[in-house]
# Entry
Amino acid sequence: MKFAVLRFPGSNCDQDCLAAVNGIDGLNAEYVWHKEESLRGYDAIVVPGGFSYGDYLRCGAIARFSPIMRAVLEDARAGKLVIGICNGFQILCEVGLLPGALVRNRSLRFVCAMTNLRVENAETPFTGAAHAGDILRLPVAHGEGCYFADEQTLGELNDNRRVLLRYVDPNGRVTPDANPNGSLENIAGICNAQGNVFGLMPHPDRACEARLGSADGAVVFRSMMETIASRQAQAA
Amino acid sequence: MKVKVLVRPKATVLDPQGAAVREAMRHLGLPEVREVRIGKLLEIDVDAKDGELDEKLHALCRDLLSNPVIEDYELIKETP
# Structure
């Protein structure tokens, strides 16, 4: 199974994503430069973290116009799995695949820390290998990770169980202290209405090996692999 | 033609940067400052006459220069 890891000028988690995906038995990742125009032949798309275009104007605002993003939009609409991590999440919001926006952390500080994430919905292509209520330990590293959306959008996300991860304390409670950036309702990761596009600020790519402090991130990539395998089995 | 674009955070969006600057102003002896909101000013020089590119410029403001989820924009044409 082949995953594409997109690279924009200023991406800096592309190697982490490649290593994380390649570290999972059965998965193989390749870089795709942002000037490419097709993602044919890839089973899933990873939009990695970093500072695409130096975060100029707004995070992700310029990357969304890169040639490869047209292919991402087309493939996403066709149902291909797309995951955006950190700056990748910001890009997916800017391009309109995910609702809302990521704004400056409420503290105004760049936050670099391990966080606890509660799995809110385990019936998705990205969380299927976990259980609802599981707590994943994943690191965050961002200055603009405060999730914002208007009330109507928040209502839609909640009603349709599209919030997949929330920042919680070690006991699994949603508290202000557990929220590293001021995100509304402690939201850390959401998916689109179709359920095939997932964006999150924490880094599963930096937490796929115990020696990195946590291997919990692997559950996200394993979930994607299982989803794709079962889709392929159904199609066969 | 010269064009200015003002981009402002929407009233419903928290502006922690503005709040920090407001605090600094208070510390500097201006406790009267109630609120500060920080946006962006873009000064653009366009090779066109007034009215020619209106639609394209507004599209640019909507799609690139601002994010309608969190920001409002204002396009101001400057008479030469």
